[in-house]
Design a protein that fits this description.
Blueprint (H helix, E strand, L loop, with lengths): L13 E2 L6 E2 L8 H7 L9 E6 L6 E4 L2 E3 L6 H9 L14 E8 L7 E12 L7 E15 L3 H6 L7 E6 L6 H13 L7 E5 L2 E6 L2 H12 L4 E13 L4 E12 L7 E3 L2 H6 L6 E7 L2 E5 L6 E5 H6 L14 E10 L7 H6 L2 H13 L1 E7 L10 E5 L10 E6 L8 H8 L6 E6 L2 H5 L10 E2 L6 E2 L1 H9 L2 H21 L1 H4 L4 E3 L4 H9 L21 E2 L1 H13 L16 H5 L3 E3 L1 H4 L9 E2 L18
Parallel strand pairs: 3-8, 6-27, 9-13, 10-24, 25-26
Antiparallel strand pairs: 1-2, 4-5, 6-7, 7-8, 8-28, 9-11, 10-11, 12-13, 14-15, 15-16, 16-17, 18-19, 18-21, 19-20, 21-22, 23-25
Length: 611
């Protein structure tokens, strides 16, 4: 029938078999509310799973022998968790579950558990036009199991290394390697290293492949002038495939110079450095050796190639037994005469500024040896390049050339001819070291971290053959001398990380011995002492690492970017259920019909891909 009197087609309705309300016919004969209350949308989806993580390095097992470094609460770790939930992927069809949302749930830090809240949708009702789309949320718990990764297993196997780097320095002290340890820790240059062993004159670094060893050697090239010798040993060979297995060894010899060593340069070498004085001190060492004339403040450089072409040996090594302690009785600034007009016209502005800076740092100090105080009135006057740091009452160390035995003939002739000064001041002492109190020499408001170095049986046997107390005392003396250098050298501290020590007598003793800034003129301010703004907080690093290993969500493992619960999840756009709400969240919620009866967008679309 057509026209205005036409009637709409009649729709037959049925009663719900459970509640009896009138509904449109569907295969289940049940309304949406009753269907949701009697249907489990999460059927076939596991609510428990296991994840494997390496306790040593913190990597997660991603399957097929792959281990990945994943941050807690990150989207990468979420992808790994979803990939281990059976029943989510791999099935096709109208009634297959569809993941629409996933978020983290807070867990106890030491529980070794991870919880994820999943929201899935499923078509219920036989797949016809009358079917209903239901949505349900539930929790999936992941149990963390400890398992060693491939790299950590290699560390415990004998002969697992492929490349060995032997670092050697032919000197009688360990101060160079103490500084090398700090550089390695600051730049994390030992990553990938299987083991580190201490030797009598150096250290051995074992690597699993040749590439990581080459990267470490390139790092050492910026540390000091080095000379490298490489060799390889055939372990095995496959004649059919023409594949050979080698073990590589690299001998890295470090130049035998160290900071504050006394040098007497050859006349030709001194002339090439801008006519610098022949009696110089080693100021600093990197890939270039820096010298300073203690009498004029003039500096000179020598690169690695020049040094190994004509190697130099120090006249006196900066050992504590060679350095004499002196007390400063007075100081006068050295005022140099102005340059001649012809020279001033030829000198650039930069050189004039550098010369003025050197003159402002030079000072003539009056010194008396500590051992002579109260016995005689003998004093000595010396010009020093660190004179601007000294004041009356300070304690410094230096070389007393009147008493030292010099093995070089040229140096002996220069001393006999009066061409060498009587005393060369090396550095100023700070804190308890200046007071000479050996019982409090380690009371400092900063501390340094050390590498995890193994002592081999051969080295332990060599130490036992020597006098154990003497060997232990020598190591303590080297460490104490290195810490004194760190206290008195700002440039040296720039290449390492200093951490604040525990508050207490150490900080009070150091603060009490440090001169107040207000008592010193601006030009005379001591810019070499350790300041509090140079120290790092060791507590934050320890807490972050502990949270990463124990499996908690208290802090992000990536340097503390998100230092609150759920911070990393928020940065990655994931949901997070906090501490209080996590205790009241049900394991499985009641299924509900989806409004509009249409599927939502898949959660794994876009950036959230299964590993």
């Amino acid at each position: 029938m057509s026209g205005p009197m036409a009637t709409l087609p009649r729709i037959n309705k049925i009663l719900c078999c459970l509640c009896g309300i009138s509904i449109a016919p569907n295969p289940s004969g049940t309304c949406a509310t009753c269907l949701a209350s009697t249907t489990d949308v999460s059927r076939g989806i596991s609510t428990e799973a296991q994840l494997h993580r390496c306790r040593g390095c913190g990597k997660w097992h991603a399957g097929n022998g792959r281990w990945s470094k994943l941050d807690l609460e990150s989207r990468e770790l979420m992808s790994l968790c979803l990939a281990n939930v059976s029943g989510l992927g791999g099935r096709a069809g109208a009634e297959a579950p569809r993941l629409v949302d996933a978020g983290w749930v807070w867990t106890e830090p030491h529980s070794m558990r991870l919880k994820v809240k999943l929201t899935v949708q499923r078509l219920v009702g036989g797949g016809s036009s009358g079917s209903t789309i239901l949505q349900q949320s539930f929790l999936v718990e992941f149990v963390i199991r400890n398992q060693q990764c491939v790299d950590c297993q290699a560390e415990f196997r004998t002969g697992a290394w492929k490349s060995l780097v032997q670092v050697r320095q032919r000197v009688d002290h360990k101060r160079t390697f103490l500084y090398l340890e700090q550089l390695i820790l600051k730049h994390n240059a030992h990553r990938g290293c299987l083991n580190i062993e201490a030797k009598r004159d150096g250290m051995d670094f074992y690597f699993p492949d040749k590439g990581k060893a080459a990267t470490f050697i390139s790092f050492l090239e910026g540390f000091a002038p080095i000379k490298i010798k490489a060799s390889k040993k055939l372990i095995g060979m496959d004649d059919k495939s023409n594949v050979s297995n080698y073990k590589y060894t690299h001998l890295v010899e470090v130049c035998p110079l160290c900071r504050e060593d006394l040098m007497y340069l050859p006349e030709k070498v001194a002339r090439k450095m801008g006519n610098i004085g022949r009696c110089v001190l080693v100021k600093s060492i990197s890939n270039i050796i820096h010298f300073v004339d203690p009498l004029t403040g003039q500096t000179g450089n020598m690169d690695s190639e020049q040094f190994w072409r004509h190697p130099l040996r120090p006249v006196v090594t900066a050992a504590r037994s060679r350095l004499a302690r002196s007390v400063v009785l007075g100081r006068e600034a050295v005022v140099s005469a102005a340059p001649a007009p012809a020279d001033a016209a030829a000198t650039t502005a930069r050189r004039r500024h550098a010369a003025a800076k050197r003159r402002s740092r030079l000072a003539e100090v009056t010194l008396a040896k500590e051992t002579d105080l109260g016995k005689n009135d003998e004093t000595v006057v010396a010009v020093s390049h660190v004179g601007y740091l000294l004041a009356a009452g300070d304690v410094c160390v230096g070389y007393d050339l009147r008493e030292l035995h010099l093995a070089d003939d040229d140096v002996e002739e220069a001393r006999s001819a009066g061409k060498l000064p009587d005393v060369i001041v090396v550095r100023k002492l700070y804190g308890a070291a200046a007071g000479g109190d050996d019982g409090k020499k380690k009371l400092r408001h900063f501390k340094l971290k050390r590498l995890n170095v193994d002592i081999t049986e051969q080295e332990a046997g060599a130490t036992s053959r020597r006098k154990k107390p003497a060997a232990a005392d020598a190591e303590d003396v080297d460490e104490e001398d290195f810490l004194r250098e760190v206290e008195a050298n700002k440039e040296l501290r720039a290449g390492m990380n200093l951490y604040g020590a525990k508050t207490g007598p150490a900080a009070d003793a150091t603060a009490a011995t440090a001169p107040a800034v207000d008592e010193m003129d601006e030009d005379e301010e001591d810019d070499q002492k350790v300041r509090l703004d140079e120290l790092l907080s060791d507590l934050l690093l320890a807490d972050t690492k502990e949270a990463a290993v124990d499996g908690g969500f208290a802090m992000d493992d990536n340097g503390g970017q998100a230092n609150f619960e759920g911070g990393k999840a928020v940065l990655d756009g994931l949901g997070f259920v906090g501490r209080e709400d996590a205790r009241n969240i049900p394991g499985k919620e009641v299924a509900m019909p989806v409004e509009g009866n249409s599927f939502g967008e898949k959660f794994t679309k876009g950036d959230y891909k299964f590993l």
